[in-house]
Amino acid sequence: MLKTRTGAALVAALAAAAVALPAKAAEYKVGLLVPLSGVYAGLGNHIENGFNLGIEHFGSELGEHTITLERADTEANPASTLGKAKKMVLQDKVDVLTGIVSSAVLGALRDFVHQSQTPLVVANAGNDEATGKDCTPYIIRVSFSNAQVNRPMGTWMANKGIKKVYLMAPDYAAGHQMMNTFRKSFTEAGGEIVGEAYPPLQGTNDYGPYLAAAQAANPDAIFTFFAGSAAIAFVKQYKDFGIGKDIPLYGSGFLTSAAYVHVQGEAADGVTASLHYVPTIDTAENKRFQEAYQAKHEGKLGSEFAVAGYDAARLIIEAIKMSGGDKKALAENLRKVEFTGPRGPLSIDPATNNVVQNVYIFRNDFKDGKVTQTVLDTIPDVQDPPNGCKMM
Amino acid sequence: MLSDGGFWIVQILNSLQLAMLLFLLSVGLTVIFGLMNFVNLAHGSLYAAGALIGYSVSMWTGSVWWAYLLAPVAVMALGWALYGLVIDRMRKAGPMNQVLVTFGLIFVLMDVQRYIWGTDQVGVQNAPFSGSIEILGQIYPEYRLFIIAVGLGVFALLYLSLEYTRLGAEVRAGVDDAETASCLGVNVERTFLIVFLIGCALAGLAGAVALPAFSAEAGMGIAILIPTLVVVVVGGLGSLTGALAGSLLIATTLTFGQVFLPKFAGILMYALLVVILLVRPQGLFPARS
């Protein structure tokens, strides 16, 4: 009798210990899904570099909890990424997914993430639907939305007295979303769109024909979104055709991203753009990030993509700290994190799970053989309307 | 816009400039194709290699002129290596295997480029002819005129060598009827290798010449491959004149399509391809008539 009671007590104590143990020191697995090959490999690299630096800077704050990383190459391929995400969740048992450059890949993961209740911290993909009508409590975006980075620019340009604008962007979802948001805020503030063109996304990077047509429409300014090699070609050709002398170039900040503005060089001089991050932000957080990033990567500037990776790592770490080892609480806590990072104050909008952040309007200045970015205006705490998001 | 003479001149020059770039790429491809029935889908990767090597050379020497000179030579060497390792063995393997193997080569070469040059875009600042000139009130970049001049110069050089040199005669004979040429003492194998290497060098030259205007990155060869293949098919396999005509036609279609039918610019090229294949399945200027 006594023996069995002792035995029962021992079992109970063991069970209690077994339950209590993960609350003390939990092992978290993070699945990093970024393209390391294909057209988006460059962005994937920046995000991964930023993510690793974030772990290095903030990982020590985790105390006895640990983070291990699983990584997979998404190749910007929706179908194969879904397969890799399923393997990570079902077989490797990751607690949180992060990364995702392409909006199409994000769209493909949405239902799986929602149904498996695995939180996904998005570090790039900006499609408006992901935090609009397709939103879910399990998708938390720490990068930007296409609407968010362009909406303030429409109002700002109209307020500067620019009346007639010509729009140009590549013919795919992000290009149209960015132009539509700009058009809405610009016309609401009294501006007029005098023409628009949507060159194909793939093929030649020759914008000469489009530029001549845009010039012929005689606008006060051109507003564009291009990224990567298309952005380099576009900005260079804008200068070569001498259009900038009469018609200034404005754009979504990806046009002159820190990732390649040095390649555009003198051609970027005077281009004005809006984005959620500029390398010249003068804060201690940004300085710490840029110095560490440049020290590790041959003096290359940390881009907005690297910052998104860096902040994704920090967001996950902060949420783990808040959860105190309770893995079930992680998804809920990821939405509650707030901190001030390289780009300034950052929080997650509970209505959409999209990031709330400053948008910077900046001008590129070419001086002494280098392009520096001068912040002209800061629009604080830019937040998207729910756009049909019902969080369930 | 339409009544503005300057606008038309600018768009015609834009067409010409794109045509010359496509010509440099397609002429090698088409002659290799025509001479030996060999399909080298990795030709676009050689263009990318030309741009990336050109970038390294101009960083190293401080002058883009060296890139125009050395990039074609380096790409020719790369082509020689590919020939020895892969292409020579695939010669008799039939078109399907050639397509598959050279398609695989695209990815191998892209990864090699990514390993060497990284995934970021690279470019040069100190290119020659970086100013612009005024034509009928429209500003036009001088560099594009330079691209046009390079393309026309290469065409003239190729035309003269095909018409007036022994190698040219061997190539023409080889394209026309390889067996008979071989019986008449033409070393078709050697001729093919030389033509192949010249094609590689021209792809490398196209990359180096495009670098200052468009920047470079690993994988840039894939996007250019499709218009290049369309040019080869439209122009007619194995024909120098066809390559030039096809380039002009496709470039004009792309350029003016972008201006007047921007929504359909992407498919106009394919529509043209279909029409030409229906009317003249052998292309505009086929080498074998």
Automatic annotation (TrEMBL), chain A:
Matches recorded under Pfam families: Peripla_BP_6
Chain ranges of the Leucine-binding protein domain: 28-368
Annotated InterPro entries: BCAA_transport, Leu-bd, Peripla_BP_I
Keywords carried by this UniProt record: Amino-acid transport, Signal, Transport
SUPFAM superfamilies: Periplasmic binding protein-like I
Signal peptide start-end: 1-25
One GO BP annotation of this record: amino acid transport
Family from the record: Belongs to the leucine-binding protein family.
Name the record gives this protein: ABC transporter substrate-binding protein
Organism expressing this protein natively: Futiania mangrovi
Automatic annotation (TrEMBL), chain B:
Transmembrane segments: 12-34, 41-60, 66-87, 99-117, 143-162, 192-214, 220-248, 260-279
Compartments where found: Cell membrane
UniProt keyword Transferase present: no
Molecular-function GO terms, alphabetical: transmembrane transporter activity
Gene Ontology cellular component list: plasma membrane
Keyword Transport found: yes
Name of protein: Branched-chain amino acid ABC transporter permease
Organism: Futiania mangrovi
Lineage: Bacteria, Pseudomonadati, Pseudomonadota, Alphaproteobacteria, Futianiales
